Amino acid sequence: MRTALALLFLLAAAAIPGSLLPQRSLNETNVNEYIASNGKVAEIYDKLQLFDVFESVWFQAIYLLLAISLIGCIIPRSWDHYKAWRSKPTRAPRYLEKMPLHAAATSERSFDELQASAKKMLGRWRFTEVQPDEDRAGAYSISAERGYARELFNLIFHIGLVAILAAVALGKFFSYEGMVIVVTQSGSYENATKVDQSTEFCNTSTSNFDSFRAGALFDGTGLNPFCFIAHDFTAKYLSNGQAEMFTSNISYAEGQDIYKDESEWQDYQLQVNHPLRLSTDRVYLQGHGYAPTVTIEWPNGEKRTQTMQFQPTETTRFLSSGAMRFDPPAGMYPDLYERRQNQIALQGLFAPTAEWTGENGKMLASAYPALTDPALAIDIYRGDAGLDTGVAQSIFSLDSSLMHSGQLQKVDRVNLTQGESVTLDDGTKLTFDGASEFANYQISHNPAQTPLLIAALAMLLSLVGSLVIKRRRVWVRLRPNDDGTTQVEMGGLARTDRAGWSEEFDKLYRILMELPDADEVEEDDIWVDD
Fold first, then answer.
1. Phi and psi dihedrals of 33, rounded to 5?
2. What is the pLDDT of residues 204-215, one digit of tens each?
3. Residues ≥6 apart with Cβ < 8 Å to 367
4. Which residue segments constitute the domains of the chain, with CATH numbers given?
5. Could you tell me the pTM of the whole model?
6. Is 432 helix (H, G, I), strand (E, B) or coil?
7. Are 185 and 438 contacting, i.e. CB atoms less than 8 angstroms apart?
8. Euclidean distance between CA atoms 478 and 104, whole angstroms
9. Alpha carbons 511 and 474: distance in angstroms, whole number
10. Residue 300 burial (CB < 10 Å; 0-12/13-18/19+)?
């Protein structure tokens, strides 16, 4: 058990870096930013797996050793408890006066009366009668013990701990967690742009997620089929910009109900820490931000409108950064190479409530997180934006290598408020239509949640039981005298917590000797050897 305790403390200490440093399992972007900001030290941390603490080899080794150590404690203790449960209580010691609690007297009552009284008094205890030929002092005695369930509850507590360790490990193997960003209607602002794109998400394929992480034994084919439609996102802020409430109204269906008409789906309001609970999955409202809408009108009159989520760079006032990429109409540039050289790319900042700072008053900042006076500050590029390279690109930034190589040339830098436009040198017109809100939904699946709950409840109840129940031993030895009286000797031992045992022992002795309670006499005539 000492080894298990040492490993438990070591496991707690090993988990500390997981709370102090960003973890890839929670936010890989934060990890990359931390590494970029802290240089060599962060690289050493990365090699030590401090950004993947709970998936690291050394953490898993401690975890496994703790489980093995606990099992190594439980098995022999369970066998010892089983043998103790099946065996009779220990015979009375030869010299009861050496016990922590001892009382002796001569009673006028007969041996048979005292024997019957002792057996009745200890009727709810586990007791055995020892005849004079088997007693260590050569007299009739009764050995009684109670509190066996204390050790049983201790074992259940430790078994529950092992069950929790096993459930967490199995949950890691078979669980998955996915994130999906849905640009939805704003439930807070009338000036928000209307969303024309789909706001529906279906948990039917891992490709539907924006990011997806799964356990080692999850193959991606066991998804629980359900769909939801995000109707809106609503945010409320205090006057100082502090968030007061986030909600998102959705409609959802599960199983075969996803094929029903959407009007028959069930409605639900997601709130922070109030997820939608399905059979094996949870849908959480994880975060939110803004998605600016930009329309480009080409010289031939064709238009392209795009709404793209921007990443909040500071979550107090929601100044956000992002990028957009536009492919020109095919009719303008029939040649594929020429068309690629005339793609339009935007990169810059968005503020929901614009505040212009700097020496010339043209540096964009955000004064408030609500969408009251949106503005864009963007760099406009023309050239190869990397749309058809086949290489995955960040949705929040342009590929800097394309700029350095000259494939993407900056043609302008502009500040735009909602409704404003700018015309480029070739006649292309760019309009900032406004912005809508996006919500970040997290879908979590952990099949170990029910076993974890059962194990935790078992640990809690067994802990209460082990604290309430106390191990006690009592021996009563009777010697009949020739004159009809009986010598009574009684000893007591507390195997665990001794609090209140002296009073309890005294009460038992008074019951046996038919004496009044201690508070009914002026002076206690019972000799108790403490």
1. -65, -40
2. 888 888 888 888
3. 317, 351, 353, 354, 355
4. 1-86 (no CATH), 88-146+470-520 (3.30.310.80), 287-439 (no CATH)
5. 0.70
6. strand
7. no
8. 10
9. 14
10. exposed
